[in-house]
Amino acid sequence: MATPSETSPPDAARRAATVLHRVFGYESFRDRQEEIIGHVIDGGDALVLMPTGGGKSLCYQIPALVRPGTGVVISPLIALMQDQVQALQQLGIRADFLNSTQDPGTRHVVEQEFRSGELDLLYLAPERLRTEATLKLLDDAKISVFAIDEAHCVSQWGHDFRPDYLELQVLHERWPDVPRIALTATATQATREEIAIRLKLAGARLFVSSFDRPNVQYRIVPKNEPKKQLLQFLRTEHPGDAGIVYCLTRDSTERVAAFLTEQGIAALPYHAGLNAGTRAAHQARFLREDGLVMVATIAFGMGIDKPDVRFVAHLDLPRSVEGYYQETGRAGRDGLPATAWLAYGLADVVQQRRLIDGSDGDLAHRRRLASHLDSMLALSETTDCRRTQLLAYFSERTAACGNCDTCLSPPEVWDGTVPAQKLLSTIVRLDRERDQRFGAGQVIDILLGRKTDRVAQYGHHELTTFGIGTDLREAEWRGVVRQLLARGLLAVVGEYQTLAITADSGEVLRGDRLVMLRRDAPMPKAPRSGRRSTAAGADAGSALLEAAELSAADAAVFEQLRAWRGATAREQSLPAYTVFQNATLRAIAIARPATLAELAEINGVGEAKLAKYGEAVLDLLAGVNEP
Ligand code: ADP
Ligand code: ZN
After folding, report:
1. Which residue CA neighbors atom 20 of ligand 1 most closely?
2. Count of Cβ atoms closer than 10 Å to residue 420 Cβ
3. Which ligand has the shortest distance to the CA of 406?
4. Quick count: other Cβ atoms within 10 Å of Cβ 258?
5. Do residues 405 and 218 lie in contact, with contact meaning Cβ atoms separated by under 8 Å?
6. Portion of the chain with pLDDT greater than 70, in percent
């Protein structure tokens, strides 16, 4: 600890470091945390863009603890406030919240605590700021900092838009001297500009961290039998692990959750159509239990800070790269290896294009949706490093990563110009038919020379292109259709999803444009970075694998610590990770501290947890060390 001397850091920095060590138990700040915290402690406004899991919370929590007064945190995550506040209380921080789920009596108690300056942090739902009563309440005590969490909710085009966020300008108008820090994990240039304008943060300093999440392995596979592929993925790579499976519709979340349960994998559905009680119960189980799979629509996930989510799987194509990156970012917040796995096929392209055509809003809005989809399709079809492409979307340049599917087993590229011409010319011929109700299935049947009833009925076996495509298999043809659709060389139109040529198709038909395609190959099992491939069998869960990297003796201690943590968390009805995170338990298992002072040295053990759990951990370790 620094002693005052001529070379000691400025007061703010020294106090921030003290809080980091003593309250949070962490050794050092992560990338830009120190700069951001110093700036806010000094009274500056900040706009912070950091990926999910990057460590945004400390950026406002530490200023709130260092500056005089209460830090007010605006968060849309009502269902998570209780957990967030409990986790802070575990650290000995005086935190509480105000939202619509509380009864008036409880609210009154919290308001009194705030008024008498007994709170370090107060979490507020944004809609509360609409009432004059809340504004008056905030006038009654000193505020150290305003933190606006999930700041992208102010963006009207994002899927997380909350009208109440537009009202947050009031903070600046009413309390011009209180520093404001807005934080988000959504980072395209357009979104960040919108946030700065709408929240009146034009004068704020902008802090942009790298959006790379090197421990997350990105993989996109062709979709054949999605449920079976998912099951295989879970069984071989993530047995016993907690994870999220995203589906497009409410219906499919229920079906997939039921299917996984039948197969012996603990899974629950989550979507906006479930009643509030069920949603809250499912979310609480996901946070508290080990190894539960949540099968959800995108209604689930914002603010879920469970650190040990080991995979995020998508069974349907996300609508935008931005959404995809946020969703996959929920994996591996603890920095340990995690997988982002997406199954994607022809039907996804057709479905998404139809959704856009049928969506409300003006032409400009539909164009924007279409361009979001195009970026997502380009990512799905790329033969280059997925991460390079993902980060490029956020204006960040990186070299090939070595931890995505295209890096680990580079896809074969083949010249698909002739098949593309065969396909397009078949479609041109169909277009001349009076009835245009033909989708990909019929076109492929014609190319393969299959005289099905429908082919015969319409006389399609007499087309000159009938049977000219037998050099490719049906699955390969579907791949060709999908890739042409993804590149805008083919379109789907109308209610019957008829395939149609586009303005660009002509170039291909005339032979003016080469069409290089990606060969869809089943993914060979990829090695996992950061994890010894020889460790344990393929059927061991990540929890076991994490332990497997420890010596046998340390692994046994780790397991005992986990069991102790589980029991301790259950007694207090807390999520296990708010007691100690896995990384901390691993460090304890290796170091085997014998005294409280030694235990305090471990990353993640702050003063409050030392006081609360220190003796129990030392007792457990003493039992282990006895012969
Ligand atoms: P975000 O809100 O950006 O998604 P969090 O604030 O929840 O991320 O932090 C992600 C994880 O990283 C948490 O488990 C947190 O405890 C941990 N963390 C944050 N900062 C540090 C640090 N300086 N040292 C060690 N762990 C940290
Ligand atoms: Zn890569």
Report:
1. 55
2. 24
3. 2
4. 13
5. yes
6. 92
Which neighbouring-strand residues pair with 414?
Answer: 517
What are the pLDDT digits (tens) for 35-78?
999 999 999 999 999 988 889 999 999 999 999 999 999 998 88
600 Cα to the center of ligand 1, angstroms: 19
Structure confidence at residue 529 as a pLDDT band (50, 70, 90): very low
Amino acid 603 reads N
Long-range contacts of 599-607 (CB under 8 A, 24+ apart): 600/25, 602/25, 603/25, 603/26, 603/27, 604/24, 604/25, 604/26, 604/580, 605/25, 605/580, 606/21, 606/22, 606/23, 606/24, 606/25, 606/26, 606/91, 606/92, 607/22, 607/23, 607/25, 607/92
Which domains occur in the chain, in start order?
4-208 (3.40.50.300), 216-409 (3.40.50.300), 414-519 (1.10.10.10), 552-625 (1.10.150.80)
For 428, other C-beta atoms within 10 Å of its C-beta total 15
Q: Report the pocket of ligand 1 as residue ranges, CB < 6 Å.
A: 26, 29-30, 33, 50, 52-58, 305, 307, 333, 581
Q: How far is the CA of 209 from the centre of ligand 1 (A)?
A: 14
pLDDT in tens, 181-220: 999 987 678 888 899 999 999 899 999 988 899 999 999 9
> In the 3-class helix/strand/coil scheme, how is 457-496 assigned residue by residue?
HCCHHHCCCCCCCCCCCHHHHHHHHHHHHHCCCEEEECCC
- For the chain, how many residues are written? 627
Q: Encode pLDDT of 11-30 as tens digits.
A: 888 999 999 999 999 999 98
